[in-house]
Amino acid sequence: MAAAPPGSPQDRSRFMREALRLASESARAGGGPFGAVVVKGGEIIARGANRVTASRDPTAHAEIEAIREACRVLDSFQLDGCDVYSSTEPCPMCMGALYWARPERVFYASGREVAARAGFDDQFIYDELARPVGERRLETRPLAIEGSGEEFDAWAEYEGRVEY
Amino acid sequence: MAAAPPGSPQDRSRFMREALRLASESARAGGGPFGAVVVKGGEIIARGANRVTASRDPTAHAEIEAIREACRVLDSFQLDGCDVYSSTEPCPMCMGALYWARPERVFYASGREVAARAGFDDQFIYDELARPVGERRLETRPLAIEGSGEEFDAWAEYEGRVEY
Predict the structure, then answer these.
(1) How crowded is residue B3: how many other Cβ atoms within 10 Å of its Cβ?
(2) Phi first, then psi: what are they for A25, rounded to 5°?
């Protein structure tokens, strides 16, 4: 499964300790208790902590913050050759973001059940996404109108498009 | 299922047309062919289009952009009483973001299979998230270290915490 040598256990513990330090620091400041770091070439290149309530931004999870910061550092929308360390198992939003960012590996210290016990919706959202769209608690519905789908033709026709 | 009166079919078509217009506009400018709007009280309060390659930010999907903008407008991390219209079924990242933002309803014009045919990973990511963590294509692993979980104690102890 793993390809490149992924760093020593000591390195990994050090990176995870930093993610946990960010999480505790956030919690002590009233933010969500979550932290994450992005590592490349044996160095931490980006850090993130939960900023949902502070920034009034529901997307400002630690992993999203760290991914965005790492992409700024790398000037790229891909985390080639990077590892991501998160204090807690990423929620579906963050796991989705990680798939789009395509790092090499993702590590997490506590599982989603620990977040659930603390009152966070991570497990609930995983369960919801596993249901058919029409059976979810958040009402989600197809609404096709004339012209739906034409935007994909425009995309296919644009010669300078960058795939991602 | 629905509670409050959700607007006329004409209104809904108008909002979706705007999401599709944003999607086509993005595609013609070389961005991903995706658009979204957030509606509150019968008015569009925020718009988003895909900015992944333009912003070099893998999280800059149309829905994420629209959610963040709407939260700025409302000065809130929750989309109370809002509907979200997306040109395509939201990917797991965006669907997760919607669950955290808690709008009333989500509408989409094209399903995930249309995005898949155009070469996007939406369906792949849904399939991946349905697998156990250890069986995914993106290597994702627990790495518990001493002190893991203490950040949740700090969160529980902080009296001024804002739940989300």
Answers:
(1) 7
(2) -60, -45
Can you tell me the mean pLDDT for A91-97? 98
Q: Cα(B31)–Cα(B139) distance, rounded to whole angstroms?
A: 29
**Tokens standing for B96?**
């997760």
pTM as predicted: 0.95
Collect all residues with Cβ–Cβ distance below 8 Å to B25 and sequence separation of at least 6.
B35, B49
Confidence of residue B1 (pLDDT cuts 50, 70, 90): very low
Give the ranges where chain A is alpha helix by DSSP (H): 9-28, 52-55, 62-74, 92-101, 112-117, 122-129, 150-157
Residue with tokens 């912003």: B55
Closest CA to A54 of B58, B73, B75: B75
Asked if A35 contacts A20 with a C-beta cutoff of 8 angstroms, the reply is yes
Q: Could you tell me the CA-to-CA distances from B147 to A112, A120, B151, B155 in Å, in that order?
A: 17, 20, 8, 14
**To 5 degrees, how large is the angle CA A110–CA A44–CA A42?**
100
Q: How far is CA A134 from CA A145, B3, B51, B101, B106, in A?
A: 19, 16, 29, 19, 11
Q: Cβ contacts (< 8 Å) between A106 and chain B: which residues?
A: 138-141
Dist. CA B134–CA B141, nearest whole Å:
7
Residues of B in contact with A11 (CB under 8 A): none
Q: What is the structure's pLDDT at A160? A: 87
Positions of B marked active-site? 63
**pLDDT confidence tier of residue A6, bands split at 50, 70 and 90:** low
Q: How confident is the model at residue A94, as a pLDDT?
A: 98
Which of the residues A13, A87, A99 would you substitute to probe the B interface, choosing the one with the greatest number of B C-beta atoms within 10 Å?
A99
